[in-house]
Design brief:
There is one protein chain. By secondary structure, this protein is of the alpha/beta class. Helices cover about 30% and strands about 35% of the residues. The radius of gyration is 17 Å and the shape is elongated.
Length: about 140
């Protein structure tokens, strides 16, 4: 059985070295779909559930939404992105460092690993960068 919950967050980023307009600092309202797969709980307060949606929300908010929302997401291994981040941080503005280029594909893998490490039985993640573009990561069960 699978359940999915959808979240949104706003972030800015850039892809330094990109050969198109994504090299510029810009923002997205990201949409994140988190899918959890497990058997149904039998008995008790959570009877008939894979997981309580409110527990799912708590973990995703803590691990993803809080660090990413209204932050400048940047690749810590990139000099120019790191310089911008340092300037923002000197003004007490929010940043989120990743050790990878901030493509939707890389971010979806990072988010998957982070939720997994937090103990969530996540089986798939889909990250929408625009209403028509998304990256998806899934484990085969
Ligand atoms: Zn972008």
């Amino acid at each position: 059985m699978k359940i999915t919950k959808i979240f949104t967050f706003d972030s800015s980023h850039m892809l330094d070295g990109h050969d198109g307009k994504c090299k510029n600092l810009h923002g997205h309202t990201y949409k994140l779909e988190v899918t959890v797969s497990d058997g149904l709980i039998s008995g008790g307060a959570k009877d008939g559930m894979v997981m309580d949606f409110s527990d799912l929300k708590t973990i995703v908010k803590q691990e993803i939404i809080e660090p990413f929302d209204h932050a400048f997401i940047y690749h810590g291994g990139n000099e120019r992105e790191s310089k911008i981040a340092a300037l923002l941080e000197s003004w007490q503005m929010k940043t989120m460092r990743l050790d990878i280029r901030t493509t939707a594909e890389n971010m979806v893998v990072y988010m998957y690993s982070r939720l997994k490490a937090a103990g969530l039985p996540v089986s798939g993640i889909k990250l929408w960068e625009t209403p028509t573009s998304c990256a998806e990561f899934e484990t085969s069960l």
